[in-house]
Amino acid sequence: MQIVRAKPEDAAALTEIAHAAKRHWGYPERWIESWRDILTMRPEFIAENVAYSAVEEGRPVGFYLLTTETDGLHLDHLWIAPHAVGRGIGRALFAHAVEQSRRLGHKALQIEADPNAEGFYARMGARRVGETVTEIDEQRRELPLLLYDLGTAAR
Ligand SMILES: CC(C)(COP(=O)(O)OP(=O)(O)OC[C@H]1O[C@@H](n2cnc3c(N)ncnc32)[C@H](O)[C@@H]1OP(=O)(O)O)[C@@H](O)C(=O)NCCC(=O)NCCS
Description:
The protein has one domain (2-149): 3-Layer(aba) Sandwich (Aminopeptidase). It is built from five helices and seven strands. The chain is 30% helix and 37% strand. The structure holds coenzyme A (COA).
């Protein structure tokens, strides 16, 4: 597995991974449809932000994307293709994202996580600092807001 800078022409492959990874949690298909925009990686979005892919046999199997917002740096995406989960690729991409974040001079990395992924981020050393409450199909949905302190020692 190699971690390489994602290219605009990877947009379709990365979009496919994001959708497949989100489906991995068993959400209803209409929820996936309502998240289509968020899960679509446009070529210019990849070009304008810090995006890296984990590549195996020439094909991306996961990726992350960092965005700079007015309140600092966000890990906007981190997705592993379902066939590649549980093999340390998420950990490797997260460590790479941390390194890039430090290199960019940031002190913290913010993450709005899928509730199912909170345990992963906690394992990586992020801590919950709040939550975003949304509603879908008249159901309350709480998304954990996590912070990774870039001043902490690398794991
Ligand atoms: C969550 C995700 C990024 C983890 O990536 P991964 O490659 O499967 O994780 P790794 O194999 O590197 O696991 C690293 C550690 O985290 C733990 N871990 C992984 N996923 C976890 C989860 N969902 N909950 C709790 N712990 C988890 C592993 O057990 C492992 O622990 P260890 O240090 O004891 O070995 C990946 O499963 C994924 O993309 N899932 C679906 C999409 C998603 O929700 N992504 C996050 C968007 S916010």
